[in-house]
Amino acid sequence: MAEFRHLPPLPALRAFEAAARLLSFTRAGEELGMTQAAVSYQIKVLEDRVGSPLFVRRARSVELTEAGQTLAEAARDAFDRLTEGYAKARGAEGVTLTLTTVATFAGIWLAQNLGRFQFANPTIAVRLDALDRNLDLLRGEADMAIRGGVGQWPGLAAHRLIPYDFAPMLSPALAAEADIKTPADLLKLPILDPDDHWWQLWFAKMGVDAGELGKRPLNSLGTQIYAANAAMAGQGVAILTRRFFERDLAEGRLVQPYAELSDDGRNGGYWLAYPEARRNVRKIRTFREWILGEFAKEDRGVQTVHPLSCCAAASNGS
Questions:
Q1: What is the DSSP secondary-structure string of 28-82?
Q2: Using CB atoms within 10 A as the burial measure, which of 10, 42, 86, 142 is most buried?
Q3: Matching CATH topology for 95-162+266-300 and 166-262?
Q4: Please, are residues 168 and 257 in contact by the beta-carbon 8 Å criterion?
Q5: Which CATH superfamily is domain 95-162+266-300 in?
Q6: Has residue 143 got a pLDDT over 70?
Q7: CA geometry: angle 158, 162, 168, nearest 5 deg
Q8: What does the pLDDT look like over 13-40, one tens digit per residue?
Q9: pTM for the structure as a whole
Q10: Distance (Å, whole) CA 76 – CA 140
Q11: Does domain 2-89 have CATH number 1.10.10.10?
């Protein structure tokens, strides 16, 4: 009881958690059905209890102080746990997990596998946001993210799911009609997304000067899933992450003319990320354990590369 008496008033904590998540007293008031002045008053009550400012107040915005950041992480975790506990007590355990992800990961891996998670966890509804935007996890715009990069984001825990291991791929028809004897011969073909720096990395690994790509029209399809569809349609050669297109390679919709894969040299890849302070929230913990388990199973059964026999011989100097 002594510890409980030292807790600040719940209305003050609710107002603070919303304002810290939204970085706006006005938006916090709209969410809570309060005026901006009422939110400001509750936060002042909390600051008096803490003994130091929780926000730096500017003309058109607010920012968390160091003390505010510390309290915000604890408050968010506490309200998450209260929400789950309240739902369980009411016998209504259904919760929504908002997952922001890049379009290629959503359109390929999640589309093929997410159903198993939903079947095993019927009380957790997954809402995907696969638009081209970077939602702020620390402000609660989404619960988790699958992002490309090197996995270093302040305040976020990150687990690499797929490395950036990429290579050129094209349709079997285009490969059959093209005279591909060396990696440099790929430059005779239409290159999809020629300004993608992955091209330069792969050609450099193969000892090919690909500087002329910068002189080509800089068409851009935006995502790998679109580039792969264009490649399957015979429109050119795409530079793709092999892990995403194993099925298309196995079933003959794409061919990878050279077995050599390149990477970005920075431990880059596709990462599962979420706020470190929320790692034990049930829906986050459940999805994390599921997806890491799925990739662990895939890693134990990854297929070897089967390059075109003619191009494999050429790459070996024959």
A1: HHHHHT--HHHHHHHHHHHHHHHTS-SEEE-SS-EEE-HHHHHHHHHHHHHHHHH
A2: 42
A3: yes
A4: yes
A5: Periplasmic binding protein-like II (3.40.190.10)
A6: yes
A7: 145
A8: 999 988 888 888 988 888 888 899 999 9
A9: 0.70
A10: 9
A11: yes
Among the CATH numbers 3.30.2350.10, 2.170.150.20, 3.40.190.10, 3.90.1150.10, which is that of 166-262? 3.40.190.10
Higher-confidence position of 280 and 54: 54
Nearest-angstrom CA–CA distance, 277 and 76: 8
Hey, what are 125's tokens? 């509804």
Domain boundary assignment for the chain: 2-89, 95-162+266-300, 166-262
Residue from 241, 259, 248, 255 nearest 163 by CA: 241
Distance of alpha carbon 160 from alpha carbon 150, whole angstroms: 9
CA distances from 211 to 188, 201, 215 (A): 13, 11, 8
Backbone phi and psi for residue 160, each to the nearest 5 degrees, phi listed first: -75, 130
In Å, what is the CA distance from 202 to each residue of 11, 82, 109? 57, 50, 24
